[in-house]
Amino acid sequence: MRLTGRIGVVTGAGRGLGREIATALAAEGMSLLLLARTGAQVRELAEDLTSRYGVQTLPAAIDVADPAAVERVVAHAEQHLGTVDLLVNNAGRIERTERLFWEADPAEMWEVVETNLRGPMLLTRALLPPMVQRGHGHVVNIASRARAATRSGTYTGYAVSKRALSVLTESLAGPLTGTGVVVLDVLPGLVRTDMTLGMPVWNGVTEWDEAAAAATVITDAACGRYDDQHGTLLDAPALHRR
Ligand SMILES: NC(=O)c1ccc[n+]([C@@H]2O[C@H](COP(=O)([O-])OP(=O)(O)OC[C@H]3O[C@@H](n4cnc5c(N)ncnc54)[C@H](OP(=O)(O)O)[C@@H]3O)[C@@H](O)[C@H]2O)c1
After folding, report:
1. What does the pLDDT look like over 112-153, one tens digit per residue?
2. pTM score > 0.90 for this model?
3. 163 part of a folded domain
4. Is 53 a catalytic residue?
5. CA of residue 110 to ligand 1 center, whole Å
6. Is the beta carbon of 30 within 6 A of some atom in ligand 1?
7. Pocket of ligand 1, candidates 35, 43, 90: which has the most ligand atoms within 8 Å of its Cβ, to mutate?
8. Is residue 1 assigned to a domain?
9. Rounded mean pLDDT of 83-110?
10. Fewest CB within 10 angstroms: 4, 46, 94, 104, which?
11. Residue 2 located in a structural domain
């Protein structure tokens, strides 16, 4: 139990990769704030993790792109769980249809950008000050090469937001150097989830990467294994195969 007594925040924890990541962290003893818009999914996960691993869990149904909700939930978590050691910016969405940029719905594209970029910016902005003050913490951003977007010429909001998220990681790396706070991008590979199953571009794919690869790499990152790679991108399936 390498993370006993540590506190983590996992966004998009209700299903898919986030659920796997939260489960791996709880299995190492980490107490968790579990966020997603669908309350039933994070509540069910929280009960399951507490009963299986004896960790403290706090589920909350919020939209990560809502500044007031983020502020509220971070204050609530600090009060009930303690100072946060790890933030995993995993919550993400993608356009519901594969359309070229000039045929896509601008409102939907912007909602995708808000979730994938504004959400991580708000949570990171809220959680970094106490981490820097304590001289300890990890921020992990779930990155994407957005291969579906480049392959199909669609999903522009997703591609733009994920590229920008990696720029956030790079921008934070310099000023955080020497503070004890480590920021990393993690690439999960291509994992079979509700998101990818809903994307026609992946129809017919038979070989998927395991969600466990990202979950293991993030758990190891929380333990400090990749601190020397501060500010860089970790390719989870490649690291997992080693
Ligand atoms: N699957 C892959 O192959 C793959 C590859 C590269 C990167 N990624 C990235 O990995 C992350 C997880 O993806 P996934 O495949 O596990 O997708 P998923 O199965 O669709 O899960 C997404 C999670 O994010 C939550 N979420 C979405 N919008 C939200 C919002 N505005 N506020 C709060 N929570 C929100 C969802 O819950 P609610 O809908 O209930 O809010 C859900 O729990 C995403 O950032 C994705 O871009 C995935």
Report:
1. 999 999 999 999 999 999 999 999 999 999 999 998 888 888
2. yes
3. yes
4. no
5. 16
6. no
7. 90
8. no
9. 97
10. 4
11. no
Residue 145 lies in a domain: yes
Q: Which atom of ligand 1 is nearest to the CA of 63?
A: 32
Per the structure, how many domains does the chain have? 1
CA of 15 to the centre of ligand 1 (A): 8
User: Can you give the residue range of the structural domain that contains 98?
Assistant: 7-241
From 87, 193, 202, 235, the mutation candidate for ligand 1 (largest count of ligand atoms within 8 A of CB) is 193
In DSSP notation, the chain reads -TTTT-EEEEETTTSHHHHHHHHHHHHTT-EEEEEES-HHHHHHHHHHHHHHH---EEEEE--TT-HHHHHHHHHHHHHHT-S--EEEE------SS--BGGGS-HHHHHHHHIIIIIHHHHHHHHHHHHHHHHT-EEEEEE----HHHHHHTB-HHHHHHHHHHHHHHHHHHHHHTTTTEEEEEEE--SB-SHHHHT-GGGTT----B-HHHHHHHHHHHHTTTTGGGTTSEEEHHHHHH-
Q: What is the mean pLDDT of the chain?
A: 97
